[in-house]
Design goal:
Layout: H1 22-26, H2 38-41, H3 45-60
């Protein structure tokens, strides 16, 4: 059985996620620019879907990188 470290959600239950809020979106991206799973970030299903859409939209608009160049 795999145990995941529970992270505290950075969002309140009714808070919406906006693609323009880059600082918030960066909290849910790994150093390899992958979106953190819902299991490990503590978001609800609805919030995770909003988060994924916002991150993808921010990447297309060049607000976030697709891949980090480290």
């Amino acid at each position: 059985m795999i145990f995941y470290k529970q992270r505290n959600a950075h969002l309140k239950p009714n808070e919406t996620i906006n693609y323009k809020d880059i600082d918030l979106l960066r909290k849910f991206i790994t150093d390899q620019s992958k979106i953190v799973s819902r299991r490990s970030n503590g978001l609800t299903v609805k919030q995770q879907k909003q988060l994924a859409k916002s991150i993808k939209k921010a990447r297309i608009l060049a607000l976030l990188p697709f891949v980090n160049k480290d």
